Amino acid sequence: MVGKVTVWYMTEEERLAYIAKHPIVPSEQPSGPVFKKNEEKRKISSKNGAKSMKELWQKRKSE
């Protein structure tokens, strides 16, 4: 049935057993040349975007 919600209640022991069976594994942030390359591209495009907006504002002011 669409929209039906099932609520599950666990005791503390069941919750701890579930966590032990399905541990949360932390993942590391990607590093290396691919990550750095994307960050550099983002910074450059951000600078270019700011420059173009500044030029647009100056044009509108002068008109």
Textual characterization of the structure:
Residues 52-63 have a biased composition (Basic and acidic residues). Residues 27-63 are annotated as: Disordered. This protein has 63 residues and is an all-alpha fold. It has a domain at 38-62. Helices cover 63% and strands 0% of the residues. The chain has two helices and no strands. The chain has helices at residues 12-21, 33-62. The chain starts with 11 loop residues before the first helix and ends with a helix.
Q: What is the oligomer described by this structure?
A: single chain
Q: Uncertain regions: pLDDT < 50 for 5+ in a row?
A: none
For the largest beta-sheet, the strand count, sense and barrel status come to:
none
Helix content: 55-70%
Mean pLDDT: 78
The N- and C-terminal alpha carbons lie at a distance of 61 Å
Estimate the global geometry from the Cα principal axes: elongated
Q: How many whole angstroms does the radius of gyration measure?
A: 26 Å
**Element-level helix/strand string:** HH
Query: What is the strand content?
Result: under 5%
Biased composition (Basic and acidic residues): 52-63
Region (Disordered): 27-63
Map the helices and strands:
Elements: H1 12-21, H2 33-62
Overview in brief:
The protein has 63 residues and is an all-alpha fold.
Fill in the keyword field for this structure:
63 residues, mainly alpha, 2 helices, elongated
